[in-house]
Write a structure and sequence with these properties.
GO molecular function, one term: diaminopimelate decarboxylase activity
CATH architecture of the largest domain: Alpha-Beta Barrel
Pfam families: Orn_Arg_deC_N (PF02784)
Protein name: Diaminopimelate decarboxylase
Number of domains: 2
Keywords: Pyridoxal phosphate
Helix content: 25-40%
Bound molecules: pyridoxal-5'-phosphate
Radius of gyration: 27 Å
Cofactor: pyridoxal 5'-phosphate
Structural class: alpha/beta
Length: 454
Amino acid sequence: MKKPYESPVILKTRMAISDRAVNSLHHSQTVRSTIDDIAVNKLTDDYGSPLFVFSEKTMRQRYRDIYMAFSTRYPAVTFGWSYKTNYLSAICSILHQEGALAEVVSDMEYDKARALGVPGENIIYNGPNKSVHSLRKAIADGASINVDHLDEIYDISKVADSMGRKVKIGLRLNLDAGIHPQWFRFGFNLESGQAMDAVELISKTGSLIVNSLHCHLGTYIMDPNAYVIAVQKMLSFAYEVEDSIFGFKIESIDIGGGLPSKSKLKGTYHGPDIVVPSIDEYAEKITTAIYTHKRDGNTPRLILECGRAIIDETGYLIVSVVASKRLPDGRKAYVVDGGINLLYTSFWYKYNIELTRQVGGLNEESVIYGPLCMNIDVIEDNAFFPSIDRGERIVISPVGAYNVSQWMQFIEYRPNIVLIAMDGSVDVVREAENLTDIQSREIIPERLLARPKI
Ligand SMILES: *Cc1c(COP(=O)(O)O)cnc(C)c1O
């Protein structure tokens, strides 16, 4: 049949580059073939995949840069290493060598610090759940305890009385520094008067002395002015306490951690290089706030408990492609051998995802799934890759903060963790697990060992 006649139309060509092309330009492949000059593929050949890799060089450098930023601006600065951010023994040991105290938030972390040889007087004991048993140890060891709630004041005073000791304690505060959501669940609220009530109660115990104030605003605090407000409020509260009838002298103010690392929060458009202020900016504003609000002749010690800002960028996870798939919506999908079991922070942060070599072909929208039998096990749902083969290595970073402490054992063994030393040598600092590790605490009751006769 003859087709009906249609008059020709001239369509205007859209000159704009298609969204997809723009995306693949934006997401041009970045390649990471080495970590501290060691080939990524050599690392996985030697230590398996997946593999966590930490750089001692970056770690010491980060610590020194951040410490210098504060200590060159203010004469009395102490750092506590936030154990919960990463409590691998090797990592804690490096930071203790650099001069950090141990900042611990549980019985377990307290024990870990002591087992690593940290003397009690170099431990800051925070957290909302300190057992009476651990408080007794901490008091005997001379640790700095920051109290979280009234029940703890009661516990500490009982322990102090039973030991016939006078005990100096810090008071954890929560306050409005313009950060939303505000963390009011830890410590005593400043603005409502709860904190001053706690000071009064402490003075009545007779055995406890408040000598320090603590406030940890939260994590990944992107606004240096929040610390400025916190410092101003803490100092004015310190002088209010000193001027009251209780006779306490505040020797230090501990502003906690929370300085951001250069990781990218999900749902943010600009990269961290644009939106995350420099450490110098935090140090400048925080120390200026102290000089502005402190009284002449008084130089309270400034304590910081940085976690992520020191460690996040020192850690990488190498994974391998196990399989590729095509999803019904047309996207390419890859299954890799490490997922949210190893990367708990993937719920909040968008990592750098890099191949170890330039791979030819067009970039296309790809999803990266972990190995778990769970729908939520997604490392990245919007990666741009050329077609990559089974066995290809992918390097995920920064992953040094909170992953190695919050990871979970669910259905997989946890892999080796290696540390690249300053001289380029590589040490395993945590061995891959095996079935013995997984089952070592299990007990099968005798009666369950009987098998039916078939
Ligand atoms: C978690 C925590 C830190 C460390 O926080 P980062 O955001 O990793 O710097 C410091 N102090 C206390 C009390 C904490 O709970």
